[in-house]
Structure of LytTR family DNA-binding domain-containing protein:
Amino acid sequence: MQPQTYLRHRHPFEAGFWILILGIHAVANSITTNIDIARSGSAEIARWEPWAWEWSSALVLLALVPVLLAFERRFPLQRGRIARSAAAHLAFSVPFSLLHVAGMVALREVVYAWMGSDYRFGDLATNLGYEYLKDVRTYGYFLLAIYLYRFVLRRWQGEAGFLTEGREGLPAQPVTDRFLIKKLGREFLVRVEDIDWIEAAGNYVTLHVGERLYPLRETMAGIQVRLDGRGFARVHRSAIVNLDRVREIEPFDTGDARAHMHGGGTVPVSRRYRQALKEQLA
């Protein structure tokens, strides 16, 4: 599979990854807990109970993954702000754990009632502390998986860098007419004029070159300054277009618009930038 094919369907793949990982974890823990119960000879715990425990926990964790991703976008662990972001994540792990516990207890009570039994969480303070110690580790594992996935994805699709011609130690220079793309141990060049549009992507911007996407560690404001005077225009808080690649502007009643590109893609145009874009195209 080519990177561009995967990226067109990345959201189902990413959702499937979390479902698979948490599902395997729930099944494995349910089986091993039942084996331990059988070895101990305990008759107090029914065989279905471990399955209720593990799957209630897994389902709530699955629901919390988008919440964690949204918080990570607000506090990314990146150079220059890692201490502040790490402290924010540590603080957020407390409500993360409380939501997890509240959700799984509610699900267990439903299952136990359906099975004609009662679920008891036990001593609140002791069990909340116990659950938090587990949840803070799970939180860390989730963050590790997110950053490892992004690292592998960037290496697979190729990561762009500014061509500085041996001046890496100097302050940032304006872009030449090339970007240096590093991909799986290879390096090649992409001309600035070949870029269709640029999209904000967390700590990166993404260069859209035909069907290919290349992440670049830069802010939208920074790349806008670097491309000043090269035929690019900001059309949205998260998009910059190559004016030569715009085929048509489709207006909406809301005042927003949509730019249709020569390559077949579309880019959102906000009211704030719409008039300026029309003037630049004219």
In short: The two ends are 41 Å apart (CA to CA).
